[in-house]
Amino acid sequence: MKYIFVSVVVFAMMLLNSSSALGQTSAQERADSLRSQLSDLEAKQSELQTRLQGVEEKLKPENIEQSLAGVGSTRPEELREQKRRQLEIERNGVRTQLDVLAASRTRLEASLARADVDAYRQSAAPPTVPAQTVGLETSHGSAGVDAATTPAPRRRVRKKRTRRARRTHHVQTIPVVP
Predict the structure, then answer these.
(1) Domain ranges, ordered by start, for the chain
(2) How far is CA 52 from the centre of its chain?
(3) Would you say residue 68 has pLDDT above 60?
(4) pLDDT band at 74 (very low <50, low <70, confident <90, very high)
(5) In this structure, are residues 149 and 38 in contact, taking their beta carbons and an 8 Å threshold?
(6) Residue 63 contacts by C-beta under 8 Å, 6 or more apart in sequence?
(7) pLDDT of res. 116
(8) How far apart are CA 92 and CA 84, in angstroms?
(9) How far is CA 107 from CA 34, 98, 151, in A?
(10) How many CB atoms lie within 10 A of CB 97?
(11) Any idea what DSSP says for residue 145?
(12) What is the pTM of this model?
């Protein structure tokens, strides 16, 4: 029974040491993943910026007229108006996508900053020391209890008592002269 307990404690210590190393790599991997997502987002954002510039260039009246120059119609004004509306819809869609990407970029940058801080803290933290086990005698024999998992006693918070303003009545006495 004693040997089983010792082997369980040794296994727990090995698990704690490996989990701290895994935690550090996972924080670094998360930061690397966020960096790659951020670079992908920047690429999409630059692509949409280029597309927006192209649409705005096409929206110029002379370019709309030039694009419809080869199209014969009895109502060229309506064709130009229709083309302008289509380009405006496309421009608004691209602007909306850019706004969404800007919000995503802000969130990604904040997440990346948190991940970098977590990775730094994990790399700068001293190696974890396995928790001390305390043997407690029970009716079933000795059992090891992990001191780190037992909750610390809660401190009781006292409320401040308010002082009531003391009102004293001063009675002024006037000496009577006989």
Answers:
(1) 2-130
(2) 30
(3) yes
(4) confident
(5) no
(6) 57
(7) 92
(8) 12
(9) 10, 14, 35
(10) 15
(11) E
(12) 0.54
